[in-house]
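Postdoc handover notes: sequence design on the structure in folder B. Input tokens:
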């Protein structure tokens, strides 16, 4: 079984050592590199091409959001396929929405429990998004306070301009477009639950969860779980 290759980009030595020590308790994880700033981090990612980069949002030379934007720009040329897990102490709206816009794959607060961090790593590695519930609440609050302005700026950073009209139409989504069970699954996606956890919570099989997730993505015209979650929060489908 191949290990999950992780790189850490964090300027605080004690924090970085703590995360590395915690991650290495799991045999499935390999920490392949570390960097203390964005410049070193970008070079490291290009060289090592890890599966996941855990990136601190508050780096000294360039913030993690800008670094994420650069990494995703490179990824579009298929030179780099690293997934980005943003780790942050910032829970203000501006930082959260900027992280969404930069195209990070998952979003965690730094006070996350270790078990939840491992879950976030596994979910991200499997190609899905892990969204910290605290961050989901911030996005929902922002959407409710300023519904007219939060559209393509952070909802669809991974799609091209041809989808902008479809983005605007997401405001018109109504709960009846999803079944009651799909709404339950969507709520758990927003809370950062993996398919396995959703299956356990709803007493259904993982296969059934995958079917519901696929239907949700189709109905919300979303490319991935992050996009579906943000659109659902944006439109008030879940809270």
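Designed sequence:
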């Amino acid at each position: 079984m191949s290990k999950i290759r992780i790189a850490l980009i964090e300027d605080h030595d004690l924090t970085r050592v703590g995360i590395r020590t915690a991650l290495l308790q799991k045999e499935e994880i390999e920490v392949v590199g570390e960097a203390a700033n964005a410049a070193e981090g970008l070079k490291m990612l290009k060289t090592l091409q890890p599966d996941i980069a855990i990136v601190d949002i508050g780096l000294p030379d360039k913030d993690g959001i800008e670094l994420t934007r650069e990494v995703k720009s490179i990824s579009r040329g298929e030179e780099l396929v690293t997934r980005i897990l943003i780790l942050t102490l910032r829970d203000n709206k501006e930082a959260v929405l900027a992280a969404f816009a930069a195209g990070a794959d998952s979003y965690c607060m730094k006070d996350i429990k270790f078990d939840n961090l491992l879950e976030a790593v596994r979910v991200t590695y499997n190609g899905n998004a892990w969204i910290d519930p605290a961050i989901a609440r911030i996005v929902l609050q922002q959407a409710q306070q300023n519904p007219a302005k939060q559209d393509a700026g952070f909802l669809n950073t991974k799609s091209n301009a041809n989808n902008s009209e479809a983005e605007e139409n997401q405001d018109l989504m109504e709960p009846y477009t999803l079944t009651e069970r799909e709404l339950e699954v969507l709520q758990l996606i927003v809370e950062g639950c993996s398919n396995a956890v959703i299956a356990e919570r709803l007493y259904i099989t993982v296969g059934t969860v995958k079917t519901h997730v696929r239907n949700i993505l189709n109905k919300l015209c979303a490319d991935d779980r992050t996009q579906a979650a943000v659109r659902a929060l944006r439109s008030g489908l879940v809270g």
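Context for whoever picks this up: The beta strands are 4-9, 29-35, 52-56, 83-88, 106-109. Don't rerun without checking with the PI first.
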